[in-house]
Amino acid sequence: MTLPVHPIMQQSFAVIDQEIGEHSFAPAEYAIVRRIIHSTADFEFKHLVQFSEGAIESGMAALQQGIPIITDVSMVRQGSVNLVQQTFKNSLISAVEQATEALPGKTRTETGVLRCLKQYPEAIYVIGNAPTALLALCQRVMETSISPALVIGAPVGFISVVESKMMLSRTPVPQIRVDGRKGGSPVAAAILNALIVMAWDEK
Length: 203
Prior knowledge:
Rossmann fold; single chain; 6-stranded mixed β-sheet; globular; alpha/beta
């Protein structure tokens, strides 16, 4: 069953198709990039989004199997909760809400992600805000045999953001990554939402 698309979104997609210019994205990759541009009105993302081999397929399969989705912050969760409830009804957990107190020397979000990795090592991890959380996730992946189904790495900002994405690029996990300083909760949610739509349409 294909999910309905709001007419304004259809019109927006048509404008993006007209204006994006030449690109080498595969159809599934383009569906994700187009959704990011729709959420941000920023065509620069055409040059920033990176896909590891098999990442989209791994993420879609995990969604179809009901694997939990862990977001770093509540705003990312809120950006996808309605679509998740309409489709696969995966558990959708905000990591920061799992940590009432931060571990020594760590942020609450970082603490929450580490706790979730212990409980849900196979989950989809969606990082749209906290580079510390992405750094902690990557460090844990490198030190252990933990292998998430997919990591969406799209924190935004100036401190540790680029470094966290570079560290993610060096891990073997399936990943969709927004290089550079740009990203944010709307971008991370857009990537997840595009995957949900494709996984549901393929079902």
